[in-house]
Amino acid sequence: MQMDFRTDQRQTHSQTQTLSPRLQHAVRLLQMSSLDFGLMVRDALGKNPFLEPDEGTEDADEPVASELETLPPEEGASFEEHNAQAPNESADGGVESDRDLWLADAASGSRQASDGETSALDLTVAERSLSMHLHSQLNTMQVGERELTLAHVIVESLDEDGYLRTPLDELMDFVDFVPTVDIAELELALRRVQSLEPAGVGARSVAECLALQLHEIKCTDMRATAQTIVADHLTSLASRDIAGLSRQLGREPVFVESVCDRIRRMDPRPGWRWGSSHVAYVVPDVIVKKLRGEWRAQLNPAVVPRVRFNQVYADLFQRHRSSENAEMGAHLQEARWTMRNVEQRFSTILDVAQAIIKRQRHFLEFGPMAMKPLGLREIAEEVGIHESTVSRVTNNKYMSTPRGVFELKHFFSRAMVSSNGSACSGTAIRGLIQDMIEAESTGEPLSDAEITRQLGQQGLVVARRTVTKYRQMLRIEAVGRRRRIDA
């Protein structure tokens, strides 16, 4: 019996684009924020012997060290080819000795120890937490050890807002006293903690937190009304229902409004003022200035890592390289890639930023109302890169302008066509909405529907839901919460 092993074979051709691991890594580096990228470079400095900090002074407009001129023209060039292209020859044609290379490297940079100097960390003020602040107040009280310990237990149970979220009966399990602690003792310890500064600490609810701060109101009548509002009408206070509160309390709307304003000036989270003092500031990657009548972008030297390629160590390694130094060879190749990534990253960011301000110069001159519609494709064609690259460059990158600090993505928006056929950006419409709300009457604020109608009168056809979205992006409250009673 003869079996037929023939099968139907077809040959198909397809094109697929794959990124090498090295290129994928470069793409991830381009998308990083400057903080993350700086941490990555500093980590490479600590691990790679062919990289060193660049301690020299450089021009602010040229913050990236031009160390790539000494590198081989192709990434795949071998060490032997590199040695043939750039041998270590002296002026008279002789080869430099290893000692000369070491001495030259020592003279090129200053590496003086600073053991005798005071570190900046030694001058940093230690942070004072909420618990430390409360414990220090308790330690000055003339109370018994048992009462003091219970108060310390309550302080340690407060959250970062200064609230006691744990029921008092559960705290009894944390204290092993003889005789056993009862609820009355814990209530007394809690009242002792609530008497400390800041006012409102140790509360178990927002109403209790506000009630603990009512003693700061000097007027007896206002304090009594505020106590009633906090105890029984907290929902009306949150919704700013002044008319409803006036009817329920039987008081004049003007008086009720003044009492509500006084309550809103209280601190609903008293523990925050004793939290961490660290503030996450936005450090711009690009600084925009007007030079000789033209807007120009330049890199912020503060975000550019000060790193350089140590050519002396590279030459020494190449001279004594052997098959046993594969790990050092990998470090050398990684150092070259790091320098290329640093230069390519900031060169691309600068090119994209310059292309953006070229198209949005009217925004720099006149503000948000003059923002033009802009797409990624326009910038990609201007710079000569792919749209996806522009998207990565503008992610988590910031630009400092005379109008403020903005993320690069802020300058991109789709075109919205007006009734006369002209294009308008969403940023310009948001600026117009903000101007309308700022000019509205406090007694008759504009609803989203009314804003939509007024925009239509100006030739801008915008849906009401779009107006609502833009208002929320501007962090402006709804019409009901903006309503005020005219005094």
List keywords for this structure.
flat, about 475 residues, 22 helices
- Write down the overall mean pLDDT: 78
End-to-end Cα distance: 107 Å
Structural class: alpha+beta
Instruction: Tell me the major beta sheet.
Output: 4 strands, mixed
Strand order of the biggest β-sheet: 3-2-5-6
Low-pLDDT segments, ≥5 res: 57-95, 109-114
How much of the sequence is in beta strands?
Answer: 5-15%
Number of helices: 22
Number of strands: 8
Order of helices and strands: HHEHHHHHHHHHHHEEEHHHHHEEEEHHHH
Helix content: 40-55%
- Dominant shape: flat
Number of domains: 4
Rg over CA atoms: 34 Å
Concise description?
This protein is an alpha+beta fold. Helices cover 46% and strands 7% of the residues.
Descriptive notes:
With 487 residues, the chain is of the alpha+beta class. It folds into 4 domains: 22-69 and 281-412, no CATH class; 130-194, no CATH class; 206-274; 415-482, Arc Repressor Mutant, subunit A (Orthogonal Bundle), CATH 1.10.10. The chain has 22 helices and 8 strands. It has helices at residues 21-31, 34-47, 79-85, 98-108, 130-138, 145-156, 168-171, 183-194, 206-211, 220-232, 234-238, 242-249, 253-264, 311-319, 326-359, 361-366, 376-383, 387-393, 426-438, 448-457, 464-473, 479-482, and strands at 51-53, 286-291, 294-299, 307-309, 398-401, 404-407, 415-417, 423-425. A 4-stranded mixed β-sheet has the order 3-2-5-6. Strands 1-4 form a two-stranded antiparallel sheet. It is flat, with a radius of gyration of 34 Å. The termini are far apart. The model is unreliable at 57-95 and 109-114 (pLDDT under 50).
